[in-house]
Amino acid sequence: MDEDFTAAVQRGLKLSKRVYFGKPQVGPHSQLMARSSPEVSELVPTAPMVYAVILHPEIVDNPDLPSYQPYVHGRCDPPALIPLQMKEVGMEIESYMDVALVTLRGRWRVHCVMGSKSCDCRVVIPMGEQGSILGVEADVGGRSYSTQVIQPEGDHNEEKVSKLEDGGFLKPQFFSFTVPLVDGGSEIYLNVSWSQKLSYMHGQFSITIPFKFPEYVTPITKILPKREKILFNVNTAADKEVLCQDPNHPLKEKARHMGKLSFLYEADVDHWSRKNFSFSYSVYSSDIFGGVHTQSPSMHDSDQREMFCLYLFPGNFLNTKVFKKEVIFVVDISGSMRENPLEMVKKVLYKALLELTPGDYFDIIAFNEDMHLFSSSLELATKEAVEEANLWISKNLVSEDEAHITKLLLSESLNKAISLLSNSRELLPHIFLITDGCVEDERNICNSMRVHVTTHLHISPRISTFGIGSYCNHYFLRLLASISRGLYGAAHDPDSIEVEMQRWLRRASLPITANIEVEVFDRLDAFEMYPQRIPDLSIGCPQIVFGRYQGKLPDSIKVKGILANLNDIDIDLKVQKTDIPLERIFAKQHIDQLTAQAWFFESKQLEEKVIKLSLQCRIPSEHTYLVLRQTRPTIQEMMAKKPKKANVEKLEAAKDRYLSRGTRIGFGDLLATAENYSVMFGNPKSPEASSVYMVTDCCSDLCDCACCRCCINFCSKLNDQFVVLMAQLCAGIACLACFQCCSLCCNGSD
């Protein structure tokens, strides 16, 4: 999480001590208030949170019970963030195959701002694996807000949008937006929905949703009940028995059908959930199984072709034979990969080499302005060869500040990797490309790799791609993986490189079925599938593809492939209608694949298709914007009233707020690649801003200690009768001083 954010929350918690709640309370909350400040790691949101954005500290007070504390001079720059108390929370989860749709409803109260004042409130939504925001609705003080996806107009440009930008992704897993002008004491009602992926390991699907609330968001009062509710529905899409692991929340099973489960948890609680919501299940089968689900489009769908979803699961048979592999790692070691990114990559490579199975072959290519090879030919993955490779990695995978990716080096490195492959029928060739930059000839690379893939005799090379940061062209990497049956992965944030790379490699490891084809698709009137070619089925990764077709599918279709023992396999898949919302759960994947194709073909027609799909599904894309828009009252209704100063402020607050940060990752940055900018997510922070922040923070802490906080702490420990006596004494002395002043002024006069 951004250091500025956690520092702002830290200052907000200190500032919240000005809020007076009446007589001291004995209990967990009073113990919490008495303890030392929380650690920085505890300030990172682990559940949906709402913060009061405090610019002027004098407005901080209890809106119901003013404490009349000493006036605080100055302002908070940058603003402090005070976590708001939560009054109610509920979550509804719909799990379909490997995607979960999450809807969270909550109610927060602005408990720390005077009733006569107002402040902005910042909402932060942490999401799980590969989270994608689907929609936000907010109600506060008679006003309603919702997120909308809009098409850029003629006067929209990046500079204008950046000035109006007020939200988006703080980090890839943290979505944020601001609700303006919220009065002290008022309540904020939120309805937030997002999608996230389920992880798959050892035959189990697992989901983890951030639902761990800090103690300081629990209201102090015990009069009103605090209600917590979780509704969880599972639809595996397979007519198989579902085996569940014990969940970490006390879920009660409501219904169970073949392939479907429903659970409910509802309770009045003393404190909010202190652990994330986790659930795991497995679909039992001793062999490979799958199916095809079809669905007709809605009448409002711009594409009236039928939708389909094809899924293949590896089953739970642990003795399945896996392919022997030829593995080549192609690693970018340019200057931008220095320090943490490259160290994380090396750490993952060490583990990947140790996990190679007997009979595998491997090599390593590192590139920047030059190309460095571990070996001139593929090496058998023996213990000695792996140890030698680890030493070579430590010595040669070192980034140089001045070294950058040249125009042809990426292409030459991939061509070199393909030339090292043996074209053997018994070995599955796999190239793993890892980079954080982009080059000018990316379309040519896609074309040349497509030729290599189609001209290979037996099993074509798989090229799996992994992009680091926001300066590489993720759509190029996605397309390159798609045309070669490879897998695409990304780490947009430096802190997630190790975890995401391990997940990416695990999905590609232990392949059991290759060259998967469905012949009946070629006989349809029209057909479109994402990704373009079905990747290999491995023990660590089920395959689920989505597409559109025109024509008629039979009641069952045959899927063909090659097993690791080189025998052909035919799998019969049943075709059936489904009520699963296919368009909604695959919309993000569909938009990303279409965007990659639009970039590759430089097609305005495909861009228009992306825009239509983005507007229809309400999911932002590279060619649309996500905005927070006031829906009630509208600007027209507000302008009909008499123009007052308050109305002018509300009119300004009612303008669209662009939530584009992180929702548009772009098509790479050639300048940043050439200049070796370090891996960043979003906009880099200038060093000047950091210096100003350090100075102001130091001064504010000094003034706080000398003037305000120490005085408040001292006065709070004084006896009430002593305070009254001292006040009367001071009043008497003041009266005597007034008499003396009058006598001096009137001396010698009548």
Automatic annotation (TrEMBL):
It comes from the Eukaryota. It holds the Pfam family VWA_3. Residues 326-524 form the VWFA domain. This is Uncharacterized protein LOC120262187 isoform X1.
